């Protein structure tokens, strides 16, 4: 197995968890999900493009078939001791405050892998 | 047609199931007083050799055991059994990483109260394991001198999910013209303040510092337990 195949495997299992989670919510609330909104941190270990492709596959033959995955990418933010504030970093290869250059490993944003909302179509409850 | 799309807030961690299991494991480890260390690295970084040496040396004065994740073979478990420590293989099949539930299953039948250290060797992979908490107290990321100094820059995510970096195969450093300063600088660039050990499991160079560190961390966590 190549590193690339491994990554896709990884995203597929994540996509299946997303579908499962959305399906649970949809059943619990009696709604049809048309889109899943996801927050994806830059340090989540998940690649956006691979996840989008995997999501489509994971939705097949489930009530979510045809649903969209809307991904909001979250850049890394660190707490900068010099600025005493949350700041972006120079790059993921250089964890320094983008404003003043102080190194910081205090990551406050960027590890998210979180379903934040579902776009739904409500079923006609009178028929239930 | 009257159905209008509507947005409902959910806010759920996708890996919640894994996180819940990992939290339960962490609590179980804490209650049993066992210090749990996980190892992540690329394939071929010398992880198994490093773990074999770690187990052999620690076994002199401590009770140690290991779980080893591997895609298909049981070779690693066979090699590690030479250390005489209890070793269990977790064959992941096509799965590229360990998950907390796999650790939980593998631990069935083991009395954690009988252990000082438990090591969990993840599948050789610097990408996927970063997203999965295994309930460990300490995560070590290994890179060998033969992999090049820029590995941290290529995999900043795994370095950010780990607590300590270990540079292995230092006995080969000269032969491959390994630039320690550059490697150390790259680790610090992606994870400022990260503790780094350099060692050779083969020659034994640097092993004492690293083992002393583990013993110190074990003592600290037990002290913290007593105080609480």
Order of helices and strands of chain A: HEHEEEEEE
The residue fraction in helices of chain A comes out at: 25-40%
Q: In the CATH hierarchy, what is the class of the domain at 3-74 and 110-122 in chain A?
A: Alpha Beta
Give me the oligomer status: heterodimer
Class computed from helices, strands and strand pairing of chain B:
alpha/beta
And the CATH topology of the domain at 3-74 and 110-122 in chain A? hypothetical protein PF0899 fold
Q: Please give the count of helices of chain A.
A: 2
Cross-sheet strand order for the largest sheet of chain B: 4-3-5-2-6-7-8
From the spread of the alpha carbons, the general shape of chain A counts as elongated
Strand content of chain B: 15-25%
The helix-strand sequence of chain B is: EHEHEHEHEEHHEHEH
Q: What is the correct CATH architecture of chain B?
A: 3-Layer(aba) Sandwich
Percent of residues in helices of chain B comes to 25-40%
Q: Stretches of chain A where pLDDT falls below 50 for ≥5 residues?
A: none
Number of strands of chain B: 8
Low-confidence stretches of chain B at least 5 residues in length (pLDDT < 50)? none
Kindly provide the radius of gyration of chain B, computed on alpha-carbon positions and rounded to a whole number of angstroms: 19 Å
Largest sheet of chain A: 4 strands, antiparallel
Structural class of chain A: alpha+beta
Describe the structure.
The complex is a heterodimer of chains A (128) and B (228). Chain A is α+β, with helices and mostly antiparallel strands and 128 residues long. Chain A has a domain at 3-74 and 110-122: hypothetical protein PF0899 fold, CATH 3.30.2320. Helix content of chain A is 30%, strand content 36%. Chain A contains 2 helices and 7 strands, in the order αβαββββββ. In chain A, the strands form 2 sheets. A 4-stranded antiparallel sheet of chain A has the order 5-4-3-6, with no helix packed on it. Chain A has a 3-stranded mixed sheet with strand order 2-1-7. In chain A, a hairpin with a 4-residue loop joins strand 3 (77-80) and strand 4. Chain B is an alpha/beta fold and 228 residues long. A 7-stranded parallel sheet of chain B has the order 4-3-5-2-6-7-8, sandwiched between helices. Chain B is globular. Chain B has a single domain (16-210), classed as 3-Layer(aba) Sandwich (Rossmann fold). In chain B, helix 3 links the parallel strand 3 (64-70) and strand 4. Chain B is built from 8 helices and 8 strands. Classes of the chains: A alpha+beta (128), B alpha/beta (228).
């Amino acid at each position: 197995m190549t590193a690339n195949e491994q990554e896709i495997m990884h995203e597929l299992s994540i996509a299946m968890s997303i579908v499962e989670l959305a399906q649970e919510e949809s059943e619990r609330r009696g709604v049809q999900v048309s889109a899943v909104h996801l927050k994806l941190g830059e340090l989540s270990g998940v690649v956006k493009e691979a996840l989008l492709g995997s999501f489509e596959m994971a939705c097949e033959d489930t009530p979510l078939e045809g649903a969209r995955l809307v991904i909001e990418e979250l850049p890394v933010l660190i707490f900068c001791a010099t600025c005493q504030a949350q700041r972006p970093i120079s790059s993921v290869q250089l964890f320094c405050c983008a404003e003043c250059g102080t190194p910081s490993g205090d990551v406050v944003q960027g590890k998210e892998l979180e379903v934040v909302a579902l776009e739904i179509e409500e079923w006609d409850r009178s028929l239930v | 047609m009257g159905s209008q799309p509507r947005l409902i807030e959910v806010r759920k961690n996708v890996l919640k199931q894994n996180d819940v299991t990992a939290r339960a494991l962490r609590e179980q480890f804490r209650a049993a007083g066992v210090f749990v260390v996980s190892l992540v690295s690329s394939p071929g970084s010398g992880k198994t050799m490093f773990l074999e040496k770690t187990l052999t040396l620690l076994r002199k004065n401590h009770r140690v055991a290991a779980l080893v994740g591997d895609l298909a073979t049981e070779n690693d478990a066979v090699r590690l059994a030479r250390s005489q420590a209890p070793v269990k293989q977790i064959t992941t099949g096509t799965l590229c990483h360990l998950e907390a539930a796999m650790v939980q299953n593998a631990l069935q039948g083991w009395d954690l109260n009988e252990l000082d250290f438990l090591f969990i060797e993840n599948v050789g992979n610097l990408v996927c394991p970063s997203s999965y908490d295994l309930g460990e107290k300490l995560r070590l990321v290994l890179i060998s001198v033969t992999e090049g100094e820029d590995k941290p820059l290529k995999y900043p995510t795994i370095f950010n999910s780990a607590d300590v970096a270990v540079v292995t195969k230092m006995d080969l450093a000269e032969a491959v013209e390994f630039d320690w300063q550059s490697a150390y600088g790259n680790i610090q660039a992606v994870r400022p303040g990260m503790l780094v050990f350099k060692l050779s499991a083969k020659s034994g160079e640097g092993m004492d510092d690293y083992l002393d560190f583990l013993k110190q961390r074990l003592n600290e966590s037990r002290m913290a337990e007593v105080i609480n």
